[in-house]
Amino acid sequence: MSKNQGLRKAIKAAGSAANLARKLRIERAAVAQWQKVPLGRVVAVERITGVPRHILRPDVHLPPAEAAE
């Protein structure tokens, strides 16, 4: 299973998986094991990277326009 698009975008926005891990104050190995951003980390990853939660976890979070309906 490959990393999903939202996680790839977050890693790119952070500069690397190691940078993302450092900003989250977790081990780089933890981020390396992710296939998608864990639900408990979505808000922090969004804040750190600027990648919206509906991109990070489209399976859980709707885009803003759809959420308002």
Walk me through the topology.
Elements: H1 5-14, H2 17-24, H3 28-33, H4 42-49, H5 53-56, H6 64-67
Explain the overall architecture.
The protein is mostly helical. The chain has a single domain, classed as 434 Repressor (Amino-terminal Domain), CATH 1.10.260. The chain is built from 6 helices and no strands. Helix 1 packs across helix 2. It is globular, with a radius of gyration of 12 Å. The model has no long low-confidence stretch (mean pLDDT 92).
Number of helices: 6
Strand content is: under 5%
Structural class: mainly alpha
| CA-based shape | globular
Extended strand count: 0
The assigned CATH architecture is Orthogonal Bundle
CATH class: Mainly Alpha
Mean pLDDT: 92
Oligomer: single chain
In short, what is this structure?
By secondary structure, this protein is mainly alpha-helical.
Entry keywords:
69 residues; mainly alpha; 434 Repressor (Amino-terminal Domain)
